[in-house]
């Protein structure tokens, strides 16, 4: 990349003012370091929570040959301390007055056992030997207490067993009633830890009522990753992209992870590194990240302007699992981030911008048995930031009379989705997301609609705006074990500027600040042990009131059709 040069201030100010009011030159200006990094990160979206399988059938109790039969007048519970007697009595109230045989009485004990499980406790519920008189049935309950906590792992394993035992001891003390919810949380957190795999085995303890827990621990691969190619780039910077993500897991034995993500296309180079490590025994993790990217446009109608630029980012973050269970999860995330971006046009430095932002958020998911089963997932985050344009005084001067992005800003991002099983091979998904802001935003903080992760009928980064909403609908059918087909319907709306300014559309009087877009399409997915491939097609079904004066989109085209392809292999 060429060295950014500073030239005559009058020339630069004239150029910047022309860009701010000219739709053609502004198309070049919006392809800046901030927007490029935004689009790269937006396409690296996390996987959806897994859709739960239908709940297993309740176990059946073998029929007994006993001829016992009793008309029940009351139940009494012996050994119950964790659940109130009123709760236990309410669970068996429907059996009062019935004549039950031995199998019927065992069904009652099963209901009590399930009640303990639902409340997160492990207990053995049974009928003790008894002489039933006047219909009074005694049910005995042995509430489990934690005895010994042991570990079992290979002597040469990289993992440190103490990390796993600390996670269990954090939520389950020796001698205390054994909580299935606490043990489940600990085991899930152990398996969330990079490089760790664990299973818990329960066995009778040395003392009556005690249950020993053995943690069977094993290493997972120290190195894994994936490489993929796609056409998710822009026309000006190269649609074809080569991507790679590598992870180095549990380097120290304490569950740390180093990740490196890289991307290259005709006009873009991007590298990000992230190091994450645990803090404490409750699943809290801290991450340190940094990235560098640069771009240069060498082709197309803008090549004569010689746009180029670079950006650097640094981030420190923390995440903590507030709720961690098989069916419900809620986590807190906080990030402090610093981004510096510089852009050059016609050999002139047109921007030197510093972003500083603090983001706090919650995200979670919940799986249920509605219908054939499904999952809700969602999240909300608040970002308080500051954009400093003082690195280039001419850019700052023009910004003050046009977009007014310099200074403090706040924004809220949100999303809520539902994935539903409709049949053995059929699922449906709906996702609603959006952003609201209190000020005009810089390119990095904008919300956009277009691309394969948004409205598939529009280019990546189309309709970048300060505020917006988006609705994505998908129906997917697995017609073969490794093949699935989907239909897509997407819509969204944006307001490009939170606060407009006089002449914001001088280059294109037809340009509206707020407008809506929609597209439909279909997709085809193939997956096997070594390869994942995704092909999708999107078509615009709405007018695009964000086009420039020539009727072109952000890539300088009037294309109503988009085809997206991604091929990935993992190792």
Structural class: alpha+beta
CATH homologous superfamily identity of one domain: membrane protein fhac
* Count of discrete alpha- or pi-helical segments spanning 4 or more residues: 8
Q: Kindly report the CATH topology of one domain.
A: Ubiquitin-like (UB roll)
What's the shape? elongated
Largest sheet: 16 strands, antiparallel, barrel
Strand content: over 45%
Average pLDDT confidence is 89
Task: Report what the structure shows.
The chain has 571 residues and is of the alpha+beta class. Among the domains are: 75 residues, membrane protein fhac (Ubiquitin-like (UB roll)); 75 residues, Ubiquitin-like (UB roll) (Roll). 16% of the residues lie in helices and 45% in strands. The strands form 4 sheets. It has a 16-stranded antiparallel β-barrel. It has a 3-stranded mixed β-sheet with strand order 2-5-4, with helices on one face. Strands 6-8-7 form a 3-stranded mixed β-sheet, covered by helices on one side. Strand 10 and strand 11 form a beta hairpin. The radius of gyration is 30 Å and the shape is elongated. The N terminus is likely disordered.
What is the topological layout?
Elements lengths: L8 H13 L1 H8 L2 H11 L25 E3 L2 E5 L6 H8 L6 E3 H17 L4 E4 L9 E8 L1 E8 L8 H11 L8 H13 L3 E9 L5 E10 L3 E8 L10 E9 L7 E9 L2 E11 L6 E12 L11 E17 L3 E18 L2 E21 L5 E15 L4 H9 L5 E15 L4 E12 L29 E14 L2 E13 L18 E14 L3 E10 L20 E10 L1
Parallel strand pairs: 2-5, 6-8
Antiparallel strand pairs: 1-3, 4-5, 7-8, 9-10, 9-24, 10-11, 11-12, 12-13, 13-14, 14-15, 15-16, 16-17, 17-18, 18-19, 19-20, 20-21, 21-22, 22-23, 23-24
Helix pairs in contact: 1-2, 1-8, 6-7
């Amino acid at each position: 990349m060429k060295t950014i040069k500073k030239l005559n201030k009058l020339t630069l100010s004239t150029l910047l003012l022309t860009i701010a009011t000219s739709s053609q030159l502004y198309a070049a200006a919006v392809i800046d370091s901030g927007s490029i990094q935004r689009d790269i990160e937006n396409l690296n979206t996390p996987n959806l929570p897994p859709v739960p399988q239908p709940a297993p059938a309740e176990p059946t109790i073998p029929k007994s040959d006993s001829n016992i039969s009793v008309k029940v007048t009351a139940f009494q519970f012996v050994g119950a301390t964790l659940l109130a007697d009123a709760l236990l009595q309410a669970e068996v109230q429907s059996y009062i007055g019935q004549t039950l045989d031995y199998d019927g009485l065992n069904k009652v004990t099963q209901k009590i056992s399930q009640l303990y499980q639902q409340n997160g406790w492990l207990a053995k519920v049974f009928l003790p030997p008894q002489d039933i008189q006047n219909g009074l049935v005694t049910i005995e309950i042995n509430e489990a207490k934690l005895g010994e906590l042991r570990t079992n792992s290979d002597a040469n394993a990289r993992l440190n067993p103490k990390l796993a035992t600390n996670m269990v001891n954090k939520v389950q003390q020796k001698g205390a009633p054994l909580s299935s919810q606490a043990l489940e949380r600990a085991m899930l957190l152990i398996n969330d830890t990079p490089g760790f795999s664990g299973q818990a085995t329960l066995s009778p303890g040395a003392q009556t009522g005690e249950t020993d827990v053995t943690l069977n621990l094993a290493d997972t691969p120290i190195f894994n990753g994936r490489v993929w190619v796609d056409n998710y780039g822009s026309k000006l910077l190269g649609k074809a992209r080569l991507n790679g993500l590598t992870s180095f897991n549990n380097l120290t034995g304490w569950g740390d992870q180093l990740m490196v993500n890289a991307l290259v296309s005709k006009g873009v180079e991007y590298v990000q590194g992230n190091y994450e490590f645990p803090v404490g025994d409750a699943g809290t993790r801290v991450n340190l990240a940094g990235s560098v990217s640069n771009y240069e446009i060498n082709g197309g109608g803008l090549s004569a302007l010689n746009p180029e630029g670079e950006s650097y980012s640094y981030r420190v973050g923390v995440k903590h699992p507030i709720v961690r269970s098989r069916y419900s999860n809620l986590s807190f995330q906080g990030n402090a981030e610093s981004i510096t971006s510089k852009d050059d046009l016609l050999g002139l430095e047109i921007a030197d911008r510093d972003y500083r932002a603090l983001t706090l958020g919650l995200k979670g998911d919940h799986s249920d048995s509605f219908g054939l089963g499904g999952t809700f997932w969602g999240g909300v985050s608040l970002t308080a930031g500051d954009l400093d344009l003082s690195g280039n005084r001419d850019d700052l001067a023009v910004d003050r009379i046009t977009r007014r992005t310099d200074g403090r800003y706040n924004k809220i991002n949100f999303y809520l989705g539902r994935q539903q099983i409709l049949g053995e091979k059929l699922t449906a998904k709906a996702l609603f997301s959006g952003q609201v802001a209190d000020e005009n935003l810089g390119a990095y903080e904008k919300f956009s609609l277009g691309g394969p992760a948004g409205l598939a009928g529009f280019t990546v980064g189309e309709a970048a705006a300060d505020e917006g909403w988006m609705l994505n609908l998908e129906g997917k059918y697995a017609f073969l074990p490794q093949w699935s087909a989907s239909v897509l319907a997407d819509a969204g709306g944006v307001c490009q500027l939170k606060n407009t300014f006089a002449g914001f559309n001088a280059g294109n009087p037809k340009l509206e600040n707020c407008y809506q877009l929609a597209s439909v399409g279909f997709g085809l997915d193939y997956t096997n042990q070594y390869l994942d491939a995704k092909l999708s097609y999107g078509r615009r079904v709405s007018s695009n009131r964000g086009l420039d004066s020539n009727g072109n989109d952000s890539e300088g085209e009037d294309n109503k059709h988009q085809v997206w392809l991604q091929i990935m292999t993992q190792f």
